[in-house]
Amino acid sequence: MAIVTGAASGIGMAIAHKLLGKGALVAALDLNGKGLNEEFATYGERVLVVAIDLTDQEKVEQKVKDVAARWGKIDILVNCAGITGRTNVRSHEVDSEDLHKVFEINFMSSFYTSRAVMPHMISKGYGRILHIASISGKEGNVGMLAYSASKAAVICMAKVQGKEYAELGITVNALAPAVIRTPLVDNMPEAQVKYMTDKIPMKRCGTLEEAANIAAYIVSPYNSFSTGFTFDLSGGRATY
Fold first, then answer.
1. Segment (H or E) for 1
2. Are 131 and 156 in contact (CB under 8 A)?
3. pTM of the shown model
4. Residues 91-119: tens digit of each pLDDT
5. Containing H/E element for 182?
6. Residue 185 — very low, low, confident or very high, per pLDDT cuts 50/70/90?
7. Phi, psi of 177 (to 5 degrees)
8. Could you confirm whether 126 is annotated as catalytic?
9. With the C-alpha atoms ordered 32, 40, 77, 71, is the resulting torsion angle positive or negative?
10. Is 156 exposed, middle or buried (0-12, 13-18, 19+ CB in 10 A)?
11. Which are the contacts of 234, defined by CB distance < 8 A and separation ≥ 6?
């Protein structure tokens, strides 16, 4: 049984479909309830559609309890919800309100969901958590202070949580994509996208299918000895 946030579009949607294709039950969480219903209507009771503001900790905690009560356990959490905020702006031009909003969605929501599912995973002695980070969280992208800093925080959270729960049958990892062709990227200034793509040795964007494939492995039982790690999905940009 899996919870996937940000499931109405992009990487979250692709991962939710991939897990469903492998037989999982999925709770698909996103602020865009209409998009969720349209995307997952054909799966029937195998999908629980949840329209939710993931920055509201009380609502997140209650919904996780509801999901656990419905299906008896939570095996997998994949945190995909995220925004870039304003981009192509230098640090002294960053708006504080925008910075806070990016951190609330990119970092705090991932903290809220992982905090909420952890007791359920501990009680079962098994769990897989994947936080979707970004290559910008490793390197820092010019013009993307809010996004880069928030994803660096996500990476560090995976490192801490991976160590804290390593002896309890729970793995916590991050995935750091470079440019994946998603609606989020499509809405960015072309100059910003070109700046990022030019850094990729493969000279192309990654695909949603590539992101979903590696994510499915990371949250599978086969990935039993990697935790606190940030997996690369960068076309050769980050080989460290």
1. none
2. no
3. 0.94
4. 999 999 999 999 999 999 999 999 999 99
5. none
6. confident
7. -75, 155
8. no
9. positive
10. middle
11. 135, 176, 177, 178, 200, 206
